[in-house]
Design goal:
Helices cover about 50% and strands about 20% of the residues. A hairpin with a 2-residue loop joins β6 and β7. About 35% of the residues are buried. Strands 1-2-3 form a 3-stranded antiparallel sheet. It has a 3-stranded antiparallel sheet with strand order 4-5-8, with helices on one face. A two-stranded antiparallel ribbon has the order 6-7. It contains 12 helices and 8 strands. The protein folds into 4 domains: about 45 residues, Helicase, Ruva Protein, domain 3, CATH 1.10.8; about 90 residues, 2-Layer Sandwich (Tetrahydropterin Synthase, Chain A), CATH 3.30.479; about 70 residues, Tetrahydropterin Synthase, Chain A; about 40 residues, GTP Cyclohydrolase I, Chain A, domain 1 (Orthogonal Bundle), CATH 1.10.286. The protein has about 290 residues and is α+β, with helices and mostly antiparallel strands. α2 packs across α3 and α5 packs antiparallel against α7.
C-alpha cells in the first residue's frame, strides 16, 4: 500500500510522533493506521521505561484554587527548555486539574486518574515522553481544603515556587499575603514548638562549639547559646519572621492584629531535594580526546 503524505499527517496528529517515525511505522504496518498507532504506543511505553532512570530535576509547578480547595502540583522534566514546551505546560495544567477534580490519595492513585482527552495521567505522561524525548515525572501534589471560618490562599512565583496557605479568620488578601511571605522567606514551620528536635539539636551543637571558642565562663556561654537559639527560631518559624511587606512587624503581630491564625502552609520549589547530575564538560572532552 502506498504511504501518502495525508496518511502520515493523520498519524502525526493522532500520536504526536515525528514525521519520519510515522512514515516508518506506516511502512512496517502496510498502511494500517490503527496498527501503527498501537505499535507506536508500545514503543512509546518502552521508551518511557528506558528514560525512567534519568534525573528529572527541572520542570514546573501549577497552583489552582477553586473555592475552599487549593492544589499544588510539581511535574518534572530533565531540562528547563522542555519545561517551557507547550505540550509539557498543557500536561502539567491537566494534571493539576485532575488533582482538583478527583482528589487522589497519592501519586499512584493520581497516575490512574482521568485527564482531559480520555487518557489516564500515566498514559498521557508516557505519550509526552515519546513526544518530548525526556523523562517526565509527576513528582508530588498537595491538596489544602478550608473548613468553616477558614480561607485558602495561594501565591505562585513564576513556574518555580508555589505556596498554599490555610488561615482561620482574616481575609483572602491576608491569606495571599502570608503565601507570598512564605514564598520569599522559606520558613521551616509555623511556630517554634514545631521545629524538628533533631534540627534544633544540630543548631545547638554548632552554637555551643562556636561559644566554646570565646573562652568565656560556662554560664555566659550558655546564655550566648540560648540567645542564638532564640534568634534562629525567629529566622526559621513563620510567626517569628519579619513580614516581607512590613519588616517592622513580625508575621505573628500581623496575624494578631487581624484576629487570624495560620493553620497550614505548603511551599513547593521545583527540584528541591533532588540530587542533580552535574556534567563535567572538560573531563568529557578530555575523555573523548583520549579515545580518538
Amino acid at each position: 500500500m502506498a504511504i501518502t503524505a495525508s496518511l502520515v499527517k493523520e498519524l502525526r496528529e493522532r500520536t504526536g510522533a515525528g514525521m519520519m517515525e510515522c512514515k516508518k511505522m506506516l511502512t512496517e504496518t502496510n498502511g494500517d493506521i490503527e496498527a501503527a498507532i498501537e505499535e507506536l504506543r508500545k514503543r512509546g511505553a518502552a521508551q518511557a521505561d528506558k528514560k525512567a532512570g534519568r534525573i528529572a530535576a527541572e520542570g514546573t509547578i501549577v497552583t489552582l484554587v477553586d473555592g475552599a480547595t487549593g492544589v499544588a502540583v510539581e511535574v518534572n522534566s530533565e531540562t528547563d527548555f522542555s519545561a517551557k514546551d507547550e505540550f509539557f505546560v498543557a500536561f502539567s495544567k491537566q494534571v493539576a486539574q485532575s488533582v482538583l477534580a478527583n482528589k487522589p490519595a497519592d501519586i499512584d492513585a493520581l497516575a490512574n486518574a482521568a485527564i482531559e482527552g480520555g487518557q489516564t495521567v500515566e498514559q498521557a505522561r508516557q505519550a509526552l515522553i515519546q513526544k518530548i524525548g525526556e523523562n517526565i515525572s509527576v513528582r508530588r501534589f498537595e491538596i489544602v481544603e478550608a473548613g468553616d471560618g477558614e480561607t485558602v490562599g495561594a501565591y505562585q512565583h513564576g513556574n518555580k515556587i508555589s505556596v498554599l496557605t490555610k488561615i482561620k479568620g482574616g481575609s483572602e488578601d491576608l491569606a495571599k499575603d502570608i503565601a507570598m511571605h512564605v514564598a520569599a522567606s522559606k520558613p521551616v514551620c509555623i511556630s517554634s514548638d514545631e521545629v524538628p528536635a533533631d534540627l534544633l539539636a544540630k543548631e545547638r551543637e554548632i552554637f555551643s562549639a562556636q561559644a566554646a571558642e570565646s573562652g568565656k565562663p560556662a554560664e555566659i556561654m550558655e546564655k550566648m547559646v540560648d540567645g542564638r537559639i532564640r534568634k534562629y527560631l525567629n529566622e526559621v518559624t513563620l510567626l517569628g519572621q519579619s513580614f516581607v511587606k512590613d519588616p517592622d512587624q513580625t508575621v505573628e503581630k500581623l496575624l494578631k492584629s487581624a484576629g487570624a491564625e495560620v493553620v497550614q502552609f505548603v511551599r513547593y520549589e521545583v527540584g528541591e531535594g533532588i540530587e542533580k547530575k552535574e556534567d563535567d564538560f572538560v573531563s568529557e572532552v578530555m575523555a573523548q580526546a583520549g579515545k580518538a
